Amino acid sequence: MKNHILSALRLTLVMLVIVGIYLGIVYAGSKVLPNQGNAEIINYKGQKFYANIGQNFTSPKYFHGRPSAVDYNAAGSAGSNKGPTNEEYLQTVQKRIDTLKMQNPKMQNVKVPVELVTASGSGLDPDISEDGALYQAKRIAKNRNISAEKIENLIKNQTEKSFFGPSKVNVLKLNIALDQLK
Predict the structure, then answer these.
(1) What distance in Å separates the CA atoms of residue 182 and residue 147, rounded to the nearest whole number?
(2) Distance CA 86, CA 90 (A)
């Protein structure tokens, strides 16, 4: 019995050291990154927004982001946990596709970008693809009485290119830039 207790204590101490070193590396790494591991806060029109948390835009004058399984509640980050063969999930996605096509009638024959109809694993993804933004450009142009070309140029200017992954557009920043567009 004494041997087991000593072994357990040794293992506990070794794991504390390993976990401590790991946490130190993660913390130090976060301080090297932009924003130093903190949220990117944007103050706009007297309100505070977090650029790294998805926002719910429903007006036809704004770009819409990814759907959220948690209604954009950052306190309860989660996915829907429904797989691609779940009938309820498939119905939800089809409703989203139908709604999106109704909101963007000039895009009836264009393939709907997947991130516009599926929630991310966290339910809080603030970004969409450049294709997802371009899919909505004609609707925005019509509702704001701005040329589609101007909207497309705005999207291209707001697109963040990535060395490792696909390019992306932050929906909050895009909508703020859209409000400032003359």
Answers:
(1) 11
(2) 6
